[in-house]
Structure formats: C-alpha cells, structure tokens
Specification:
The complex is a heterodimer of chains A (about 450) and B (about 290). Chain A is built from ten helices and 18 strands. Chain A is an alpha/beta fold and about 450 residues long. Classes of the chains: A alpha/beta (about 450), B alpha/beta (about 290).
Chain lengths: ~450, ~290
C-alpha cells in the first residue's frame, strides 16, 4: 500500500510535470544557419525563436523529464510502499515483569476483551498479533507501571514509530495492563492529553480489582532515621520537617524509626541483617514486620550501580506522581532490575533513579539522586514525590481509587486514537544526514549554475 | 566564356596605360623610363664616350661643331598579374540568382586581362583556392584571355589559403591586381603588397563585396563563417545597424591601409556591372 508523508509535495510535483509537458510543447528553435563570410562583424546578441507545437516531439526526452520531476516529488513527499497491515492496532502496555509469560498476557488480554472486563465497557474484538485481521496487538513492555502515566508516552512513541514504518494504519487503541497497586496518578493526568483517544485499563493476570475501592486509606508514612551523614545533612531536617513533632535529634534517637536512610557509602549494600533486629516493625499489611533500609549516598553512587563513562545531567526526577525539576548530576547508571526489584523513581529521560529490592525481612532502597547540601530543592512541594517514595512502606503505598473514572475518562468512550495524530512530519523525521545534505545539494546546484554561466561567458568571449 | 562576351564587347577599345613610366622592358606601349635612340625624338644630349656613334646628329655636329646624341623615348611592356582570392568566403552568396563574389572576381579578372592584353601587355593569373594553386605566367599570345577564362571557370572556391604567400610569388616591376574580399590574411597581404610596391610594382586591390553582405535578410539566422566554422553568431534584425557600421568601418580601415601601403584600392559590389567596374578600375589606375 502506498503512503505519502507530505501529499502536497506530491501534488506540487504533479503540477510540475504538467508544466514540463506544457513547456515541451513550446519548443525553442535553433535559428536557421546562414553562411555569412562577414559573420565576424555580427554583434553578440541573445536571440530565441519560440514556437508552439501541437504534438510533442522527442517523446523519450519528455518522458524522462516528467519522470524526473515526479521522482523528485515522490522522494520529497515521502512516498513509500509498505505491505498492507491492519487498519487498527491495539497497543497493549504491560509491566516488564510480565515479559516472561507474554503468551499468558496475550491470552489474558484477548479473553478479557472478549468478556468485556475492560473498563468503560469496551468489548471490541482483540485478535492476536499473528492474525491478519482488522486489528492486531502490539505489546509494549514498561518498567514500573505502578505509575501508570509511564504507559502513555511509551504508547505515543510506539504509535509514531508504527506510523513512520507502516502504511494503512487508521486508528490506534490503547490498552494498559495495570497492576492492582498504583503509586500515583499525577503523571497519568499530566500525560493523558498526549493520547488523543480512549484508554482501556485491564488488571494484570490473576489480579482482580475490587468493584469499589475507597480512597485515602493508603496514606501511611513511616518515620525516618537518617544515619551516616554529617550533622548538617539536609535530609535530617527534611524528614524531621515531614514528621511533625519529631525533631532531628529525636528522629535519630527514637526507637520507633523503621525507615533507615544510610548516607554513608561505606555501609554494605543490602546488609539488612546488620540492622538492629530489635527495631519495631512497621507494616503496610497488618501483622508482617518490615524493616526498610534506604541507601542514599551523599555522592549519589550507591553500591552495585555501575559508573557512567561520562557523568551527565538530568533535568528532573519523577517519583510518586510528581516531578522534581532541577539539574541533577548523574554519575551512575541503573542496574538491570531483578525479579524482586522495582523502580521507585525515574529520571526525566525514563532511566531509573531509585530501586526498591524486596528481602526477607523487608526491603532495601537505593537512591542515586545527588542533592547538594546547600540546595533547598528537597524543601519544595515537588520533592514530596521522591521523599514519599523513600519513606513509604515496602511495596509502595497502595493507592486506592476507582481506576475506571480517574484514569480513563477522556474523550468519547469508544473513540480510538486517529492515526493521523501520530504522523511525524517530514521535517521532524529528517535524519542528521539530510540536514547537511540538503544545503550541500543546494550549494552544489548553485555552483553548477555558476559554472554554466562562467562557461557560457567564456564561450562568448 | 560566353558569359564574358558582353563584357568583353563593352570593353573593346579600352586601353590600360600607366600614369608613369615603366621600367625597362621589352618594347611595348607604355612609356619607359629608359631613353633610346630609335623612335620619336625627344631631346639632345652631349655625346659621352661610349655612346653609339650612330646616334650622333651629324648635321648638328656639322653646323655647331659640337657632338650631340639624339635621344628618343622608349616604349616598354608592363606584365600584368591578376591575383584572385579563391577562398571559401568568395563563394558567397552560393546558389540563387545573385552574383557571387567569385563570379564577379572572375569577370573582373577576365575584363582586366582583356584590357591589359589589348594594350599589348602580357597577362598572367595567380589563384589560390583550397589546397591548390593556379599559376598562369604572363603571355601576350592570342587566346590568352580565353585560356584564363576557362581556367577560372573550372575553379571551385574553398578553404582559407594564404593570399600573401601568393602575392610573394609576383615579381617586381609588374602590374599586380589583387581581387579579394579582404576577409583572409589581410595584414600579411597588405604587408606583402607594400614590399611589392617598394620593388617598383603597381599594385591595385579590388575589394569585392557581396551585396548580400551589405543588405542582410530580415530574419533571425545563425550566421556562420564559411572559413571558420566555429565562428557563429546569432544574426537578428535589431543587430543589422551595428553590423553595417562595423562592416563599413572595416572597409574604411582596409582602404586606408591599402592606400597607406602604396597600393591602390577599389571597392566593387556584386550588383555592379563587371564592365563598368573594369572601366572604373582602369580609369583610376590608368591614363
């Protein structure tokens, strides 16, 4: 199937071809030759004899000219041939934890859609990728879908990529396979406008959402004890400020502290057994004792995180549904997440900035965010996301709300995203090579014109 | 040859004498710079040792007791060379009813030869055309004009031969008429003509101009020089005025240069009757 990125360019090329045909009918005759011995006395003049002709001559030349114009127009308009595929594509965004059993996920998606268990009563038939039916499934694996907002930019990016590589796509459907436990909805609401259609939510396999969840019951924060840092450590005052009634000194001395923020880099990574076994337990689930160790080195280099070849800068860090915007220096890279690990904070480019690893007695969190001691960035309200992610119980704070209304509601219930919304313009798709190639071609063309003009002047001289 | 008949009839009785005395040569009709003892008396001169005693005027010696020699004016021949330019440009205009420059040059050559031959002078022809050369030495015998006419009629113009090299073959103390369109090696030709004039020859250039060179057609053409194919210019009607001005300036310059070299210069256009042109040339250079 043919597809065109810039149809107007192709139209201009068609008009150009018509113009070439019209010009071909206007022939410029070479004047008849006259043998004149005194030709040396004839002054130099430019004379053209233009005449119209009804039938074109030199059909091969005419054909070549028209083909050249049309070929240039086709190239500039992005005309391309792609095998015909499905007109509708269902983008399914699922957590990477489900990658190991993607077959089950596909079946789950298909069954759920057929059974009408997706939200908003969307029961459109969802076929498998292998099926060449009117709709096919495109799986997108994402990290940390506890923040479901991450699904939206990934879906937009994949849709744009599909539009650039495949022809014939008319609509996109988006299906987010969300875990039962969510961390926040701020990022979802921030990104929701980027998807120009309805979004379907589906619980993960073997997870059943309650019919009605009551909001507000997940706001459980643990007291924090900061150790290993200098007395003027910013985190001491920050967490003391977040825990009214407990001063910094009280925090460090209190026996009720469960979240231990270790600022000293010499502490062994994940050595949760070294913690005081007599520390009282804190739990998100009643009856299960939990100890939370947070490794947040002052230099931002947690143990086990590989160093970057060249440190760079991230403009923001996102956690708990809020983005903290500031220039953060990144010296390390996030390690690959194991099955018992999950990301709790992300840099602005999507890279993981903090990890939570579940252990037998609780969890260990490693944070690679460098905050200068003189900075007040953690005192801003936007820093609450990072701080809440750090002091939350193991497994994160269970947000509970009605998913269907708060996450999905946008646009018409059955409105699929039109494919045209993801068409990337030719200018944006221009490769770096094309950016210098076009001026280079222009310069070459001007040079050719100049050489031709110079040659003609030389011949006249 | 028949084409030249009316012209030759029109030139009957025309004689081509020189304005000044010619050098010593075989007895002819032209006044010679040499003084002799025979013929018409001119003057007396005192006898000098070595003079022929038969030239003494014995009666005067008897009356005056002084020895005088009777002198008389000699008459000499003046060989005439007609040099024709047979280059490709002389063939213009080719075809059609118009007289080409070569046809006019041939008619002028035959007419001038006939006039000179009728004056008793030997007439010869030199023609450079293409890669060939026609050389007919001066003769006075009967039938010379017919031979010249036939030889010229058999020639086809072509190439770009050097006329200066041809003129260099002409001996001194002759009458040399050069029939050319002056579009070839003009500089070298004038230089060679000046050498010839310095040697005592009478040189006359007859510049043959085609009427079609003066009046160009009112259309757009690609004018190409027949002798230099790479020399081509678009000839549009709006450029005619400048062309005419340039061509006139060229002809004026050529005339001045010919005259400056000591040679004569006459311009003949192809629409002029050959007999009239011959008379004009003869009258300009003769008595």
């Amino acid at each position: 199937m043919w597809s065109v990125s810039s149809p107007w360019v192709l139209g201009v090329a068609g008009l150009g071809a018509i113009g070439v045909l019209a010009l071909h009918l206007l022939s410029v005759h070479r004047p008849p030759e006259l043998l004149l011995p005194t030709a040396r006395f004839v002054p130099e003049t430019m004379a053209r004899a233009v005449a119209r002709q009804r039938t074109p001559t030199d059909l091969l030349l005419l054909l070549l000219r028209i083909l050249a114009v049309l070929a240039a127009g086709a190239a500039l308009s992005g005309l391309r041939w792609a095998p015909a595929g499905a007109r509708e594509i269902t983008l399914v965004v699922a957590d990477r934890r489900l990658l190991a059993d993607s077959i089950t996920l596909r079946a789950h998606v298909t069954r759920s859609a057929a059974a009408g268990r997706v939200t908003r009563e969307r029961t459109a038939s969802v076929s498998d990728t292998a099926a060449s039916g009117p709709r096919e499934i495109e799986l997108i694996w994402a990290d940390g879908l506890q923040e479901p907002g991450r699904a939206l930019p990934l879906a937009v990016e994949r849709a744009a990529r599909l539009m650039a590589t495949r022809a014939g796509i008319e609509r996109f459907a988006l299906l987010v396979v969300a875990p039962a436990s969510l961390h926040g909805t701020e990022s979802w609401q921030a990104w929701r406008a980027a998807w120009p259609g309805a979004v379907q939510l589906l619980p993960e396999p073997r997870v059943t959402w309650p019919d009605s969840l009551t909001p507000g019951e997940g706001a459980v924060w643990l007291p924090v004890r900061v150790t290993g840092g200098p007395p003027t450590d910013l985190l001491v005052s920050v967490f003391a400020r977040l825990t009214p009634g407990i001063s910094a000194s009280q925090t460090s001395a209190s026996s009720a502290v469960t979240v231990v923020v270790e600022r000293d880099t010499t502490t062994a990574a994940g050595n949760i057994d070294s913690l005081d076994a007599t520390e009282p337990a804190a739990s998100t689930d009643a009856g299960s004792p939990t100890v939370v160790l947070v490794q947040w080195p002052i230099n931002g280099r947690p143990a086990g995180w590989p160093m970057r070849d060249v440190p760079d800068t991230a403009s923001a860090v996102s956690a708990g549904g809020r983005a903290l915007i500031a220039p953060f220096v990144r010296a390390v890279r996030a390690p690959a997440l194991a099955t018992n690990e999950r990301a709790i904070a992300w840099w602005s480019d999507g890279e993981v900035a903090a990890i939570e690893r579940m252990v037998s007695h609780g969890c260990v969190r490693t944070v690679a965010i460098v905050v200068p001691s003189s900075s007040d960035v953690l005192l801003t309200p936007a820093a609450g996301g990072v701080l809440d992610a750090v002091r939350a119980p193991c497994g994160g704070r269970a947000m509970s709300w009605r998913l269907a209304d708060s996450l999905v509601g946008f646009g018409a219930p059955d409105a699929l995203a039109p494919a045209a919304a993801f068409r990337v313009s030719a200018a944006l798709r221009m490769s770096p090579a094309a950016r210098w190639l076009q001026p280079a071609l222009l310069v070459l063309a001007l040079l050719a014109l100049g050489v031709e003009w110079w040659r003609r002047q030389a011949m006249r001289g | 040859m028949a084409a030249y008949g009316p012209m030759l009839d029109a030139l009957r009785g025309v004689r081509w004498s020189t304005r000044s005395a010619v050098a010593a040569a075989a007895p002819g009709v032209h006044r010679s710079r040499q003084r002799g003892t025979a013929g018409e008396f001119t003057e007396y001169r005192l006898y000098r040792q070595g003079d022929d005693p038969r030239a003494l005027d014995w009666k005067l010696l008897a009356r005056s007791d002084r020895a005088f020699v009777r002198l008389s004016e000699e008459r000499a021949l003046l060989p005439t060379w007609v040099v024709l330019d047979g280059s490709a440009s002389m063939a213009f205009p080719e075809g059609g009813a118009a007289v080409s420059k070569w046809q006019l040059a041939c008619a002028l050559a035959v007419g001038l030869s006939a006039v000179a031959h009728a004056s008793g002078d030997p007439v010869g022809v030199l023609v450079a055309h293409g890669q060939s050369l026609l050389r007919m030495p001066p003769r006075t015998r009967r039938g010379t004009i017919i031979e010249i006419a036939r030889a010229l009629d058999a020639i086809l113009c072509g190439g770009d031969p050097s006329l200066a090299a041809l003129v260099a073959q002409v001996p001194a103390r002759v009458r040399c008429v050069i029939l050319t369109d002056c579009l070839g090696d003009l500089d070298a030709l004038i230089r060679q003509a000046s050498v010839l004039v310095a040697g005592g020859a009478w040189v006359e250039c007859v510049h043959v101009v085609a009427a079609a060179e003066l009046t160009l057609p009112d259309a757009v053409y690609l004018a190409r020089d027949p002798e230099h194919a790479e020399r081509a210019q678009v000839l549009a009607p709006r450029a005619h005025a400048e062309y005419r001005a340039r061509f006139a300036a060229f002809r004026e310059d050529a005339a001045q240069r010919w005259r400056g070299s000591g040679a004569g210069y006459s311009e003949v256009v192809t629409n002029e009757a050959p007999a009239r042109a011959v008379r004009r040339v003869v009258a300009r250079t003769g008595v």
